[in-house]
Write a structure and sequence with these properties.
Layout: E1 3-6, H1 12-23, E2 27-32, E3 45-48, H2 54-64, E4 69-72, H3 87-115, E5 119-123, H4 136-157, E6 162-168, H5 193-204, H6 212-224, E7 231-234, H7 236-244
Parallel strand pairs: 1-2, 1-4, 2-3, 4-5, 5-6, 6-7
């Protein structure tokens, strides 16, 4: 039975991805910073993992055993004018979204390289497919992962390890920015109010949105696709952006 380790499974895309792999008969290791009971079906193994903490990463990888597929889904977001973004939080975004992904990849490479088998799926966002306002820091953190993943696909391909990118679109039901410790209103200075209003209105009533199932199915496809395909947009909005690009 194949084993998948998924980061950031406490909600949203990560939670549904864990459920999806479990329904399809995989051995699922679901990780989150603070494990909670009742989120996942019986048979799913839950481990504590903070992707920004090297000690936590080492403990989780050691406890997991052999991993066939790593899904780097853990991430945090920020919406608002970059002028108002606290730089300590910008660094936190990169620590989680970018460096956390890199650290997890580095932790599993040795076992996959030695076996000459394995898949690494890095989850980014549709913000990498077209420039979007009021998401500059978040976009930068995800664009870095895109470049990293493209290069890594060549590097690890020499050892028969596949590396993939899943790019989900916008999902109003995901906890995109709920981990911030300041008001989102602080991110829209008065000077930006007229600019931001129609953008937030569009977010509130999007014509195309991505569901958790869209993202889970794209991760599943990426994990099982033996071709050299790198990009897997997830959701109708992301697919439309990818085609337009």
């Amino acid at each position: 039975m194949n084993t998948v380790l998924i980061t950031g499974t406490s909600s949203g895309y990560g939670l549904e991805t864990a459920r999806h792999f479990h329904r399809n008969g995989w051995n699922v290791i679901a990780t989150m910073r603070t494990p909670r009971e009742g989120l996942l079906p019986d048979g799913v193994r839950v481990l504590a993992l903070d992707v920004t903490d090297p000690t936590s990463i080492a403990a989780a990888i050691g406890a997991a055993g052999p991993i066939d597929v790593l899904v780097n889904n853990a991430g945090i977001g920020l919406v608002g004018a970059f002028e108002a973004a606290p730089m300590d939080y910008v660094r936190k975004i990169f620590e989680t979204n970018t460096f956390g992904t890199m650290a997890m990849v580095q932790a599993v490479i040795p076992q996959m390289r030695a076996r000459r088998a394995g898949v690494i799926v890095n989850v980014t966002s549709s913000v990498t497919l077209a420039p979007m306002p009021l998401a500059a820091a978040y976009t930068a953190s995800k664009q870095a992962v895109e470049g990293f993943t493209g290069s890594l696909a060549h590097e690890l391909g020499a050892f028969d390890v596949r590396v993939k990118l899943v790019e989900p679109g916008y999902a109003p039901t995901t906890r995109f920015a709920q981990n911030i410790d300041f008001s989102i209103d602080e991110m829209i200075p008065e000077a930006y109010a007229d600019f931001a209003r129609p953008i937030f209105d569009a977010f509130a009533n999007p014509s195309l949105t991505t569901t958790e199932s869209d993202a889970a199915e794209a991760v599943w496809l990426a994990a099982n696709d033996v071709s050299d395909r790198l990009h897997y947009p997830a959701g109708p909005d992301a697919v439309a952006l990818a085609r337009a690009g």
